[in-house]
Amino acid sequence: MLLKPAISCILLLILQAGFNAARAQAPAANLAGRVSSAVEGAMEGVLVSARKDGSNITFTVASDAAGRFDFAPAKLAAGRYSLLVRAVGYELDGASTVAVPEQGQANIDLKLRKARDLAAQLTNTEWFISMPGSAEQKRPLIECLSCHTFEKIARTKHNADEMYAVLKRMATYAINTSMERKQKRANPRKFDETTFRRLAAYLASVNLSKGPRWTYPLKTLPRPRGRATRVLITEFDLPRRTIAPHDVLTDAAGMVWYSNFVENTLGRLDPRTGAHTEFTYPLIKPGAPTGALALEPDRDGNWWLATMFQTGLVRFNVKNSTFQVFRLPADLDNSEAQQSMVMPRQSHIDGKVWTTEIGRQVILRLDIASGKYELIDPFKYMPEGSNHSPYGLAADDRNNLFLMDFGDEVIARMDAQTLQTTIYPTPTPRSRPRRTMRDGQHRIWFAEFAANKVAMFDPVKESFREWDAPTPYTYPYDVFLDRNGELWSGSMSSDRILRLNPDTGKSVEYLLPRQTNVRRVFVDNSTTPVTFWVGSNHGASIVKLTPLE
Amino acid sequence: MGDAKHKDEGTRFFGFVRDASGKPVVEAKVTAEIKNSIKYVTHTGKNGMYSFGGLNKSVAPDDVTISCSKDKLRQARVIRKTPPGGKAVKSVETECRMQPE
User: Fold this and answer.
1) Which residues contact A351 (CB under 8 A, 6 or more apart)?
2) Strands (E), B23-72
């Protein structure tokens, strides 16, 4: 009686083996081709994107030195695909759809022609490179990129006075505003009139206020070459344009979770199917801008959100899909209060979760059991009038805090027991340290946003190392050191993902297929090769980047 | 420190770390500790020089202690070149002398 099932199993295995062999012999569905232009002939580094009709997933590969591209790594399903290209200065000339057969390969020759509107293709970085003016004149403009591209400013026809009025209006918007969802602050952001007047005059000198054409040549960055072309990029469109994914991370099961910068939702994406689920947390502070910035897990895999102007912290219990809100006490919760960051990763040590209070430029620490917050001011002995803004947070094995001062040029360590603060100025002045992560060797890696560098702080030696981003005006937002010791970074400006070997200093920059306002970067170390994830904050999509070498 | 042009700075601390023969000590760790409070840590450059940005005006210069350290060396003494005093001064120069352990 026991034999029959065993025989059945063997027969099934033989049949399965035969079926697999037949499948292996039949060529799988694929799309490949060549891309060229009359000007250059075969073109390297052209991003070719394919999206199947009715799908929310877009695959992108890059052409090699002979102009060839091949979607084999994407394992496309058969069907009709729309094609897009990204090659600054060029646009697709001719067919933009192709049918991929059930078996075999569809081949297509893509012809490119000179772009009719180069300005529409420029990244923010290319605008910064193109515009005349000093780095000091351009420095304030990086604040604009949080909400929209620089192209929007460059196309205006405002004179200096009109531009000043626009800047004043901009100060009324919350930082968690997008073009799809504009949100007003309770009170306008404070600004210095002289600075705004000077900035308005500069902007009026580089926009279209003097005529229909820009008075300076539009410069472009080189297309990807060599190693930078060996990449597969997968974009998962989210169901609403208003969704602004900010922090994107994967869990142990490979599911992708993200914070929504402008709405009170936590999102989950199944990257195997593209299926998307949203979990809505309650309105905490009616009338205040909605949305959260930082998303971090605790040891148990529960997700914590820093809920910006909604104020306080929110914890999502993954076992029963419920939210718990940790409200700010009334004495801390004024109209300027804003929690942008949260650090619960070591909360199992002492039951405490760190967060930032941007309105007061201080650190708060939540006691989970009691729900009480304590306030610590790491900048109390800094000169009055100096700018400080606690930003990226990391915690060590004793839940001591490392914080980045995005307003200035220091990082700080806060002792969990004594709350004593030690301040470390970065080697490069005015670096504006932004997001951070701690690696397995207890080192603190972070982005020096305004210095155009990525950096490492060694807490044992209490010393820094810095590396230049290879492209000027990148403004790196965040970093992530992967299991191979390579450092990944992304930018709100250049649409490029940096992969840097800190030991050799060698790097590669992958161009993304679309304008992508990069915020938190994340690497899933459980896959081979490692997988890079990021949200398109202005593009309502989740982007996965798979290096092919 | 930082972008702000209108900040109201108190005392700045700067100076040098030198060995027993007077040669500059590079990459020495220099700590400025405000009495019972915050510490600032930086390292000397190629000429053995360090500097900290200005502190808040509320910090009395005499409440700030400067110290230095480096592998295989120990701090011998710290010479404060600006006369001590209760009133605020714009800057305080120190020289930290080190000798072999």
Assistant:
1) A367, A368, A369
2) 29-34, 39-43, 49-52, 64-69
Question: A231-258, pLDDT tens digit by residue?
Answer: 999 999 999 999 999 999 999 999 999 9
Specify if A220 maps to a domain. no
Q: Which of residues 43-62 of B touch A (CB under 8 A)?
A: 43, 52-59
Same domain, A188 and A279: no
- Asked whether the beta carbons of residue A425 and residue B52 sit closer than 8 angstroms, the reply is yes
CATH number, position A357: 2.130.10.10
ipTM confidence score? 0.88
The domain containing residue A93 runs over which residues?
15-116
DSSP, res A243: -
Q: In whole angstroms, what is the distance from residue A233 CA to residue A225 CA?
A: 16
pLDDT tens digits, B44-94? 999 999 999 878 888 999 999 999 999 999 999 999 987 665 555 788 999
Instruction: Provide the shortest C-alpha distance from residue B21 to chain A (in Å).
Output: 25
- Could you tell me which residues come within 8 angstroms of residue A486 by beta carbon, excluding any fewer than 6 positions away? A499, A500, A501, A502
Determine the distance in angstroms separating the CA of A427 from the nearest CA of chain B, rounded to an integer.
9
| Residues of chain A positioned with their CB less than 8 A from the CB of B27 | 463
Which residues from chain A sit within 8 angstroms of residue B55, using beta carbons? 381-383
Say if B92 is an interface residue toward chain A (CB within 8 Å).
no
Let me know how long chain B is. 101
CATH architecture assignment, domain B12-100 = Sandwich (2.60)
- Predicted local confidence at residue A304, as pLDDT: 98
Instruction: Please state, in angstroms and as integers, the Cα–Cα distance from residue A80 to each residue in A68, A98, A235, following that order.
Output: 21, 6, 18
